């Protein structure tokens, strides 16, 4: 991963913030016109930044091109409703839209812009040590304690379809895991990686968390869900900064989602996965 900028240029921040705020407009307020207006405004500010003659002398990455990759991804995701459904048509739509939101920015960056702004470093910077394995265990324990209380006491488990037969349970398992992997490919390896080319890590992490948490809200993590999803998004960004490992952040996310899956099945079928001690 290249060296991140240490300075925050106000116009760069305004442009990136406008683009990232399109996510809550799209996925929380559900106002697509406002969302696209914010995307266009952010790209317009970035275009103004590009007109600065000093930028060429600094040889910095193009803010306009990089923010356009985020905008393309968000626009593709917004092309479908994000309510969790398990029928063939909905699962196909999810696959095409979410897959396109990762693939299209990658292809545009690599073959049109020719700068490889997005990255998918699978193994990262070394072997996993005790701290890595300890955090994986902690994720399981924390999920086991917190998620049953959150999903069932708030009623948000009803944002996912009832799964009352083996076929639907299998579809839920595949869907939860696939979306979890996609989260890391898009929010971390695309949005976060692009933002790191222009902002210090702490600020890039905050900006990607706006996008990450907004998507999870529409997906179903509502009520007091942001109290969980905000620290989760920030932690995933921090872990990626330390490990540079897509494999590790995906493993963390899949362990978390394994508990989510079990809780959702239990909430609809109390006799299944009856292993949670914090069920209200």
TrEMBL record:
InterPro entries in the record: Rce1/LyrA-like_dom
GO biological process entries: CAAX-box protein maturation; proteolysis
This protein's name: CAAX protease family protein
Keyword Endoplasmic reticulum: no
Record keywords: Hydrolase, Membrane, Protease, Transmembrane, Transmembrane helix
UniProt-recorded Gene Ontology molecular function terms: endopeptidase activity
UniProt organism field: Leucobacter massiliensis
Keyword Transmembrane helix: yes
Pfam families: Rce1-like
Origin superkingdom: Bacteria
